[in-house]
Amino acid sequence: MNESLxxxxxxxxxKGMAGLGATLASSSLSPAIAVxxxxxxxxxxGHQVSPVQxxxxxxxxxxxxxxxxxxxxxxxxxxxxxxxxxxxxLWIPDNIKTVRAVIVHQHGASIPAAQAGATSxxxxxxxxxxxxxxxxxxxxxxxxLNDAIDLTPGGAELWFDPRQGSDRVFxxxxxxxxxxxxxxxxxxxxxxxxxxxxxxxWANVMSILHPxxxxxxxxxxxxxxxxxxxxxxxxxxVPPAVYEIPTIVNFGIGERGNxxxxxxxxxxxEYRAQGAPIGFAPDPRTGHFCGDSRYLAIPFFxxxxxxxxxxxxxxxxxxxxxRGWLTTPFGDTAMPAAEFKGDPNxxxxxxxxxxxxxxxxxxxxxxxxxxxxxTAPVNFSVSLSCIS
Length: 388
Description:
This protein is α/β, with parallel strands linked by helices and 388 residues long. The protein is built from 10 helices and 11 strands. It has helices at residues 8-24, 31-36, 111-117, 124-132, 157-160, 166-181, 198-209, 259-273, 294-308, 353-365; strands at 67-73, 86-92, 102-106, 136-142, 191-196, 214-220, 247-252, 278-283, 325-327, 334-336, 348-350. The strands form 2 sheets. It has an 8-stranded mixed β-sheet with strand order 1-2-4-3-5-6-7-8, with helices on both faces. Strands 10-9-11 form a 3-stranded antiparallel β-sheet, covered by helices on one side. Strand 7, helix 8 (259-273) and strand 8 form a beta-alpha-beta unit. Helix 1 packs across helix 3 (111-117) and helix 9 packs antiparallel against helix 10. The longest helix has 17 residues, at 8-24. The two termini are 17 Å apart. The model is unreliable at 1-52 and 377-388 (pLDDT under 50).
């Protein structure tokens, strides 16, 4: 990445844009999406919702690279089905023969979060990760009607609890993308799940429902455990296969005493006691927002994709614990597992030395010096976009 993109001024600009990106993004259609918007059948590519608010997109990509596909599903009135409209935007890199995994960037609760999520498939930093590993990048955007985080009509719990219907629609979308894109493997490849807040709950529960499909998970300020006090949110039974998924819980120090804090710590402790490869990354600079967590999340997925992908789409390698590093929760120093002197069942896990060094810088400063995108093919340049 061009060093000028990492200057303090550039970082400040990017953070300012993050809050404005969804509302200021152009509502004009990209050529790829415009062609697809000729179809008007529910659940098919390009189905239009009228009126379309500018903050929800579709947007004009800042780069002409790759191909964008879009699916829109209206809300269902049938009990047990998703009662909120959703748009799925999928980006597929150019010249890709086989999609090896789907990277899902799942927004949090509230209208602003959902509108910001509508831009995630356009994010050049996340696209660089997808391109490196021949993955598709998926950005769901659930059209909540208010900022409620419960089962109120139009509230976010109607989607971030996958059992309320978003699980079924997500799988349906993958099937339809597989058909429409010409990449049948999209229906069956593994997933990398990133989620913030309600999106973290969604990613955590999806890991529990489909542990064999999840390659890795990064849970920013959200896990199923944070909703234990809610009587309507029945805690899912965790199958042993979940403890094989490389995971990081990441939350802001400013969340101390709140449910995201409590839930993240509980999830870490319970999973690690079962030997799960799970990391623990408190962010010293933030509260309930993402900060610079992308600079840890993207390298984490990069390491996990390298560790777990095989030439067979449906088969994942087990996490390689031999190269892992361990650290004390709320500490700031990691070391090779063989050198760790404490109780390994209470220690946070990191996949390798490279990520451990990034983690040490992140938990001290809330960011990392190396904020570049994953190493990309020759002649492919990438810049940061606004969404964490």
